[in-house]
Each structure stands twice: as structure tokens, then as C-alpha cells.
Amino acid sequence: MVSPEKQAFFEAQDVALTFDDVRLRTRSGHQAPLPDNLDLASRFSKNVELKVPFASAAMDTVTTSEMAIAMAKLGGIGVIHAGLSVEEQKTEVRRVKHHLNGLINRPIAFDRRRSLESILNECEDRKLDFRTFPVIDENNRFAGLITQNDLDFSEDLQLSVMDIMTPASEVTTADPDTKIEEAYSLMMEHKKKTLPLIDDNGEIAGLYIFSDVARIVRGDEAQFNVDERGRLRVAAAVPTDAEACDRIEEIRGDDGEFLDVAVIDSADGDSYYAFQTLELIKENFPDLDVVVGNVSEGASAGELAAAGADGVKVGQGPGSICTTRTETGIGTPQVTAVYESARAVEKYDVPIIADGGIRNHGDLSLAIAAGASAIMMGGMLSGSKETPGDILVLDNGSRVKMYRGMGSPSAMKASAASRKRYDVKGTGEPLAEGVESYVPYKGSVVDIVDMCVKALEKSMRYVKVDSIEQHQNETLFNRITNAGLIESHPHDVQVVSLKDKD
Ligand code: IMP
């Protein structure tokens, strides 16, 4: 529950505030000792947890599988953008889900009569980034294994799989109900990197991969944000119409096991269509978490939560590449929008995702103290190695990558989903609500998120809170003036970097 002092602060404001209008108040160590263990665990939606409260934006220059894998490994989550065909989006989501595997329930298996060439072509077409496969015979029974080595050391690609595979008789296998700890012991004992599980009919019932089994059993990578089966968590953006259900059905697979959360992605998240799409998805996939956005009014967030949203995304116009506010005049500044939305959804226990406008690391802590459970970033992560797109070298030698709004002219031209996000009907020239830009190439997103984590932790130590929830409820704000803002940044000096000159 938000403290009465914080409520009083926001109630006293006569204008809507954004990040540069406020700073957090520190607390005296007399009242609260410096926290030893900070817990950054939070939620992206009602049932989808985060180990750090960060998400990558559903944008075509930010999140496909490479970014989503990196974000989940860092403890956050990536939202695969919807500007892809259904097939492409499904492939990207599956790549995240297949990146680590405790137990693969239905491993991809190849018929032993197939040629190596046809298998390599299929791997290429399906963008599979692994090369270990069980082999089956004409009766669907386990016949052997092929691995990366078998494929690498075969000069004749016309050979069939059965000519090069390790036959079933030489493969260590186990029963279908083998637990992960038993699998680990067996694989250690026999020095095997794969362990097929075979049922009474001789058919493949699952597959363990050693690197992933070892990671889970040894707890090496406690920071990874994984589902209950040890696979990285991932979200997918969907448009506000009936196509959303087709997309979800295709992406989730028959048993609904490949998608953690669907994000209804609209510039106007409380439109009639957004509500209708939410209702439709909830009707068809009652056990799937659905986040809806974007809105910037408490009342809108509250209505979405009441209508069944499992998370509400807040931010209309704060984005670095966004022209929504200048083109249309709408949009509540982000700190007030997040605070009011968080208050409105409190009774539904629905998390708020603060989306857009993060310029400085300190804004992350401000967004959480305003009530956000997670923060979605585009600009902050843009230009990193894991974003889609090439590095360009400018005439002056600097390296850049493209970062563009999904409502920019080129993004809307490229994809129907972008046009839908900005509700473009008819055939004329659509109103652009975003711009295209180049940003400096920034190296790996791992270092960027690492700095975000360090800054949030440092901020929480200053204000003496040890959890995201305590930060949301207790941390107090000061409103600052323009003089306070100038004072906040380096001033009256010429900033230089001496890092490389040591
Ligand atoms: P940033 O982190 O400040 O760069 O903002 C990223 C967010 O801006 C995204 O997550 C979207 O919600 C939003 N956004 C993306 N494209 C556009 C656009 O073209 N116009 C307005 N907002 C956009």
C-alpha cells in the first residue's frame, strides 16, 4: 500500500510531472539501516516474474530473439515485435524458448533415410541454432543420434543419416520419467552430452541436453529468467484485432507451451479495439497472461485491469523516437501517468509497466518509485549488438545502428502491424507518430543492463529500501525547479573522458 506521504505529494500537484521534474528523497540511516541484500525481483504481469525489472521494447530495431535471449539471461524479458509475419514471429519466439532446455519434450527428430544435405537445408530454413538430433526409423522408433560433429566431418552430403549416425545400440538412453537430477548423474557417469528418453514402444519421449541440465542442477545461472521448465521467458506483441488470436495460437503451439505472455500493442491501449482484443484473447486462452498498452490515464489502466488485463503498459508520448505528443497534443507526462495508473490497478494486483522516456539511469528508479513493476526500454538498449540491423560506418568513422519509431514513416511502410499500432485505416499517407534515427553503436546489451542494475541498486541504497515493492510504496519524491534540474547535471565544467588515456 502506497504511504500516505507519497499520496499527499501527488495529490498536492497541480501539474502532471515527468522524470526531470522530480528527484527521490533519501532516508536517514537512523530510520532505516542500509539494506544488505537488495532484491530486484518483480513482475512483468500477474503470473510472469522478473529477476530484474527490465523489458526490451517491442520494436523492429530493438527486439527479436537475440535481444530477448540476452534480456531473459540478464533476468528481464524481451517482447518480440509484431512487425513480423506470423511465421517469422513464431520462429523468433521459439528460438528464445529453445535456447536453453532442461527437458525438450518433443525434440526435432529426422528420418534415418534423409540425406545430410536436406537436413542442413532444413536447419537453415528453420533457423535452428543447434545440430544435435535424434533419428527415427520408418515406424517412428528411435534409431540413433546425429550431432554437430557428425555433420561437420561428413564430406559427402548425399549420404543418408543412417550412414553417419551413432546407432541406438550405442546411445545411452533413459526412461521417460527420468528426473533432471538423475539425467545429470547418468550423463556425468557416461560422459554424454545428450540423453534421449525412450518409451516402451521405442519412441522418443524427450531429450536432455547436458549444458542446460548442468546449468539447472548446479544452479550456475541463478540470474536467468526461466519458466517452470527451465526455458527462458519471452513475450510477443500482437495487434488489436482478431489476428491477435491467430498469432497467439500459432506461436504458443498445440499445448500452449511456447509463450509466456502476449502484449496487445497499440498506441491507444484503451481503444474499443484494445478492449475487444483483450476479451477475445482471454476467452480463447484463459491461462495466458495478457498485457495491454499503452495508456497514460489512471482511469484507463483501471478499466483494463477490471476487464482482465494481467499487466498494463503506461506511456503515451514519452518515447525518444516519438512524436505522438507534438502531432496530437495528447499524453500525460510519465511520472504522473505511472503513479495514477499504479494506484488505479492496485486493487486488481496488476503490475504496471512504465514504457518509454528513460534517458538517464536515475529515471529507472524514479519510474519504480512512482509505482512501476517493470520498465520497458527502447532507446536505452538501442544501438547494442543484440538489436536487429547492421552497424553502419559514417564518413567521420563513427559506428551507428538504426533506431526508429514503430510509427515512423519507414516502419509503417514496412509492416501492417506498425500501421495497426497507429490505427491507420484507409489508403492515404498515414500520420507519422515517430521518427527514424541513428544511434551510436554501444556494444553488448549485457553491459548496458548491468549499468541499469547497478544504478537502480545504488538508488535503492540511498533511499534505504530493499525490495521493489518497498520502493514503490515508501520512497518519497521532491518536485524540483529548473534550477534544481541544472544543478542535477554536471555544470560549469567541460566534461572529458580520461578512461582511455591512463
Ligand atoms: P524509448 O525507450 O524512450 O526509446 O521509448 C520506447 C517506447 O516508445 C516503445 O516501447 C513504444 O511504446 C514507444 N514507441 C515506439 N515507436 C513509437 C513511435 O513511432 N511513436 C510513439 N511511440 C513509439
Structure explained in plain terms:
- By secondary structure, this protein is an alpha/beta fold.
- It folds into 2 domains: 4-100 and 224-389 and 442-488, Aldolase class I (TIM Barrel, Alpha-Beta Barrel), CATH 3.20.20; 103-214, CBS-domain (Roll).
- Helix content is 34%, strand content 17%.
- It has 19 helices and 22 strands.
- It has an 8-stranded parallel β-barrel, surrounded by 7 helices. Strands 7-8-9-10 form a 4-stranded mixed beta sheet.
- The radius of gyration is 25 Å and the shape is globular.
- The model has no long low-confidence stretch (mean pLDDT 93).
- Bound molecules: inosinic acid (IMP).
- Inosinic acid binds at residues 57, 59, 294, 315, 319-322, 324, 355-358, 376-380, 405-408, 433-434.
**Count of helical regions:** 19
User: Which percent bin holds the helix content?
Assistant: 25-40%
Query: Which sheet architecture does the biggest sheet show?
Result: 8 strands, parallel, barrel
| Overall strand count | 22
Give the N-to-C terminal Cα separation. 50 Å
Q: Can you tell me the CATH superfamily of the largest domain?
A: Aldolase class I
Domains, number: 2
What share of the residues does DSSP label as strand, in percent?
Answer: 15-25%
Shape: globular
**Ligand roster:** inosinic acid
Instruction: Look at the structure and give the CATH class of the largest domain.
Output: Alpha Beta
The CATH architecture category of the largest domain equals: Alpha-Beta Barrel
Q: Segments where pLDDT lies below 50 for 5+ residues?
A: none
Mean pLDDT: 93
CATH fold topology of the largest domain: TIM Barrel
